[in-house]
Amino acid sequence: MRERERERDQPPVIQSACSWRTGLKKRIRFCNLPFLPFQVYPTNVSLVLASLQVLLPFKEKMSKKPSLVVFDLDYTLWPFWVDTHVDPPFRKSSDGTVRDRNGRLVNLYPEVPAVLQQLHSAGISMAAASRTGEVRGATQLLDLLGLAHYFRYTEIYPGSKVTHFQRLSQQSGIPLCQMLFFDDENRNIYDVSKLGVTCILVPNGMNLSLLNHGLEAFAPS
Ligand SMILES: [Mg+2]
Asked: Which NCBIfam families does its entry note (predicted)?
């Protein structure tokens, strides 16, 4: 009775909600279920939808991905200068290792294959941009080390990387602001970031942690 009196005193809209809730309470008791707090039952659908409306744009923002990820080569993908520290041409031995003309072992930073594979699996296009003068050696290494198939575009020649990125944008039709760039040299980071590219400095070779850092840095831009 007290509950009915309380319902009568409520404004019309609240009263309707209370009546509906009372009915629900009775039905729950009939089924021998405990009457849990209001929020536990799926009665607050509008509240849930309102929460989603707030959360979805944030999730969408965080899941924003670059259209093109560009990597420098020397000291970003491999730990040497291809025009100085090794001697082309390179060859692949029967055991699968890659060596230079003097038999020196040539390799990538350990997590580079996983980095490229992760981006490839996510359907993100990749490019290589290097200012080395050893164009033939760098191209040969990309092939022998099993990286060539990952890169849709390669820009390898001396000079400012502003040119490399302008050409990448022209070739791909991808705006510079949709690109993410990894490089070990501050001068390149400085030049390319002025174009609107999201740039990440690579201090000790490319790795998965740095990739995640780059993707997070790109998302809010
Ligand atoms: Mg470099």
From this structure: HAD-SF-IIIC, MDP-1
Q: Which of 198, 179, 173, 64 is nearest to 122 (CA)?
A: 64
Considering the candidates 9, 72, 95, 183, report the single residue annotated as catalytic: 72
Q: How many residues make up the chain in this entry?
A: 221
pLDDT in tens, 70-82: 999 999 999 999 9
C-alpha dihedral, 202 to 103 to 140 to 94, nearest 10°: -110
Q: Which domains does the chain have, with CATH numbers?
A: 2-43 (no CATH), 68-218 (3.40.50.1000)
Q: How confident is the model at residue 5 (pLDDT cuts 50, 70, 90)?
A: low
How far does residue 132's CA lie from ligand 1's centre (Å)?
A: 9
User: Does the annotation mark 74 as catalytic?
Assistant: yes
Let me know if 143 is a catalytic residue: no
